[in-house]
Amino acid sequence: MIETKGLSYRYSVGTPFEKEAVKEVSIQIQTGEFVGLIGHTGSGKSTLIQLLNGLIKPTSGQILLDGKDIWAEPKKIRDVRFKVGMVFQYPEYQLFEETVLKDIMFGPKNMGLSDEEAKKRAEEAAAFTGLKPELLEKSPFELSGGEKRRAAIAGVIAMDPEVLILDEPTAGLDPRGRDVLLTQIRSYHQQRGNTVLLVSHSMEDVARMADRILVMNKGEAQLFDETKKVFSQAKSLEKAGLRVPQITKIMQQLHEMGLTVDPATLTVDDAVRQLLPILQQGGMQK
Amino acid sequence: MMDITIGQFFPGKSIMHKIDPRLKICLTIFSIVLLFMAQNFLSLAVAVAFIFIGMLISKVPVKLYLKSIRAVIFIVVFTSLLNVFYGTGEPIAQFWVFKVTVNGILNSVFISTRIISLILASSVLTFTTSPTQLTDAIERLLKPLTYIKVPVHEFAMIMTIALRFVPLLLEETDKIMQAQKARGADMESGGMVQRIKAMIPVLIPLFVSAFRRAYDLATAMESRCYHGGEGRTKMKILKMQKSDFFVILLVLILLVVFLLSNRIFPPVFMM
Predict the structure, then answer these.
(1) What is the number of other CB atoms lying within 10 angstroms of the CB of residue A138?
(2) B74-94: per-residue pLDDT in tens?
(3) Does B137 reside within a domain?
(4) Based on the domain organization, do B256 and B151 belong to the same domain?
(5) Cα(A22)–Cα(A70) distance, rounded to whole angstroms?
(6) Candidates B11, B175, B186; nearest CB to A78
(7) CA–CA separation, B184 vs B200, rounded Å?
């Protein structure tokens, strides 16, 4: 379980650029949960996730990982980073090794694993992200954009973290690549049973994937609730500069017009399931 | 990583920020010339006062100026120590081969003041002038060189791009470092060799991305028909304001005071 208590962070203290990016955030994420993190640009999402895996030190407040303050022993902060794996935005820019396999092995090797163990983990991770085995011996700079992204994500998964944080993993991918990657992330979550935190701009993506959703607004945790409940509060979301998924909006309007549909429908498939019988009965009758 | 103060711009609305950047460059050079022309403590004080006034009206926190001095503190201590022992005249204290003279102490105070003021003067300029203004002004000031076929515009453009890329690359370095740290890279501990090795995962992606950015920028410039400085107009044309002429007048008065004070007392240095 990962928990924050009154977590705050200020940038550039003492200069004209000082800014409070995260304000008094207190949340609890249970083991095995799939949490979506949404928020407008500059809402403090990125800062929050950097705090969660100990890349930056909070100005005040605590982060508890399985009940222990991660900054209790600053020298052991690396262990926290192995437990809370972090995939940054555009992670393909972090590739540096001669071969893809070696690059994926970088994390496991830093954990002190043997070459064989690291290699085993790297191959497993590559399989999870759908990276073809023949690509593993290539230079990472020869891969296509989508393949690079997979290799970089595999590099984090190979550390087998308890909590996996993904910052906009689908940014800049084509629609098909996006769907495939999200499906893989979900099956990874289901098979390993670990906690996943997905940061995304796409309401459709988080609606489809997450059990619960955390909405950040101006550095504060504005909402943290089950996905359906969050998306039924369209007003509150709009205040945070966000919107509900398109299909949810349509279903809400149909509901207002008197159709017997669920106003908190999150996926197109679900909507089809509800609307087809109504259509077969002759549609809307006034 | 983000703690580099020298050469950093601090946005503001002070009088110093508003002075024409060309004039500001000239004033900075002028104050440095004064510092080196000063022969006694009175004229040095005039030059230092000139720089202090600049600092005061820049409204940049004094803390930042102190930070910029910190970078040269070693040079200051080193040169002043040398000067203490190389003075001429009667020694007031002596041990082994070292002798301390009044003249030596005066010399070292004089030189330290000079070096520190030099840094402060250039800090006033860079703190209150944005990099674009700075290169714009330099381009304008160097324009006469185009008559002897010096590609001034190209130099200015290179400088602008270089300056623009400094914060970008810093940010990029920071990002890549974070990403590698998240994968357990250890950059804080270990010996010299280990630390250098630990930089490889940062340097390679950084180089790759710098090249990528350079290509992108070149393409972007060409697709907007950039072809050098010929016939190119400016969006913001530098123009001297009334207040700028007022500043020049004040500086001329100061120059007279300085020259007079240089005459009144004998020089400190007796070479």
Answers:
(1) 16
(2) 889 988 888 888 777 777 777
(3) no
(4) no
(5) 18
(6) B186
(7) 14
Give average pLDDT by consecutive 10-residue segment, chain B, 271 residues.
Answer: 58 87 92 89 90 90 86 88 78 75 85 92 90 86 88 86 84 90 83 84 92 93 85 78 86 88 71 40
Is the CB of A94 less than 8 angstroms away from the CB of B179? yes
* B135 belongs to a structural domain: no
In a domain, B209, yes or no: yes
Residue B134 to chain A, least CA–CA distance (Å): 21
Q: Please indicate, yes or no, whether residues B193 and B270 belong to a single structural domain of this protein.
A: no
Which structural domain range is residue B215 located in? 142-234
Same-domain status, B159 and B178: yes
CB contact under 8 A, A88 and B179: yes
Specify the residue for token string 């039924």.
A232
> Which positions in chain A touch B185 (Cβ < 8 Å)?
106, 110
Pair of tokens at residue A151: 């290799």
Number of domains within chain B: 2
B209-248, pLDDT tens digit by residue?
999 999 999 999 999 988 877 777 777 777 888 888 888 8
Cβ-proximal residues to A8 (8 Å cutoff; 6+ apart), any chain: A20, A22, A23, A24, A25, A58, A59, A60, A61
Same domain, yes or no: B112 and B15:
yes
Judge contact between B140 and B22, C-beta under 8 A.
yes
The reported pTM is 0.72
Residues B261 and B188 in one domain: no
In contact, B189 and A76? CB cutoff 8 Å: no
Query: Tokens standing for B169?
Result: 């690359």
Residue of chain B with shortest Cα separation from A93:
B205
Taking contacts as CB-CB distances below 8 angstroms, the residues of chain A near B64 are 15
Distance of alpha carbon A40 from its chain centroid, rounded?
15
State the amino acid at position B70 in one-letter form.
Answer: R
ipTM of the complex: 0.84
Indicate whether B160 and B210 sit together in one domain. yes
Looking at this protein, which amino acid is placed at residue A142?
A: E
Whether residue B218 is found in the same domain as residue B268 = no
Do B23 and B58 sit in the same domain of this protein?
A: yes
